[in-house]
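User: Sequence recovery, please. Input:
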């Protein structure tokens, strides 16, 4: 009988040691968090689609080309305090994107977290044609994660954003984002990158169907009207320790062929 009890205890401990983690709001960034990541420009030979239960993902051969820093700020410490007050967390995603009249500068995403979700609630930017802060809240928030997040969870949610473009107090147009996000927690196990080895994680696959559009009409200037699809697939390996994905991969998929656009992994400062 004692041998059976010992064997059962050992089996249970082994099972618990391999059990998947659960992600909650406590594992998301907070205001004043500063988190470094590395950017990979080319990663041939890496299989980002492989997934399942009790996986061992080895991405230790990734080569960093540059680094970036996520600086999460209370919205009151950003240029868009009048739009978001003090209730959101802002992080700059780019100093500048594009060129000319339709360039975007000082781009910030704004988030909120609760016991049930981590959601994008708005966007702020300065437009090349109108060098004034423009910002707006989602009319339907983008629920990036719904908590608790466990293996084999699946959820779907729509999102919508409208930003009035103004000069002083005159509205001259609008910027829109509309889409749908489908999340599937399709794997769990341990991941290794150049940052650290054997980090316990779950893997989230997000399929995002999105359309972005901009319409501006200013007297004496050529009207700006465009819309483009921003469809993508994101793979994120989430842990209980790193606040941001240990590894984040984004790209497009046509006919089962996945084409990379972005690879980022959590990292330390590299001189």
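Assistant: Recovered sequence (271 residues):
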């Amino acid at each position: 009988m004692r041998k059976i009890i010992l064997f059962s205890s050992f089996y249970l401990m082994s099972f618990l040691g391999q059990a998947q983690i659960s992600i909650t709001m406590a594992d998301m960034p907070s205001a004043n968090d500063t988190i470094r990541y590395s950017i990979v420009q080319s990663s041939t030979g890496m299989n980002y689609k492989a997934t399942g239960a009790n996986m061992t993902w080895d991405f230790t051969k990734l080569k960093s080309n540059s680094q970036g820093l996520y600086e999460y700020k209370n919205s009151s410490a950003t240029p868009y305090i009048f739009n978001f007050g003090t209730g959101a967390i802002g992080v700059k995603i780019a100093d500048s994107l594009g060129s000319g009249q339709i360039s975007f500068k000082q781009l910030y995403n704004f988030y909120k977290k609760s016991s049930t979700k981590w959601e994008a609630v708005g966007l702020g930017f300065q437009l090349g044609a109108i060098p004034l802060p423009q910002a707006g809240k989602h009319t339907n928030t983008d629920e990036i994660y719904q908590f608790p997040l466990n293996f084999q969870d699946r959820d779907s949610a729509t999102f919508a954003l409208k930003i009035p473009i103004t000069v002083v107090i005159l509205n001259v147009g609008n910027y829109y984002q509309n889409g749908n996000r489908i999340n599937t927690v399709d794997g769990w196990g341990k991941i290794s990158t150049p940052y650290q080895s054997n980090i316990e994680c779950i893997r989230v696959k997000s399929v995002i169907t999105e359309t972005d559009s901009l319409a501006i009409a200013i007297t004496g200037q050529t009207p700006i009207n465009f819309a483009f699809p921003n469809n993508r697939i994101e793979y994120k390996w989430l842990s209980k320790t790193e606040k941001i994905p240990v590894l984040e991969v984004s790209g497009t998929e046509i006919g089962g062929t996945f084409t990379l656009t972005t690879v980022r992994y959590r990292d330390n400062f590299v001189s």
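Confidence is low (pLDDT under 50) at residues 1-17.
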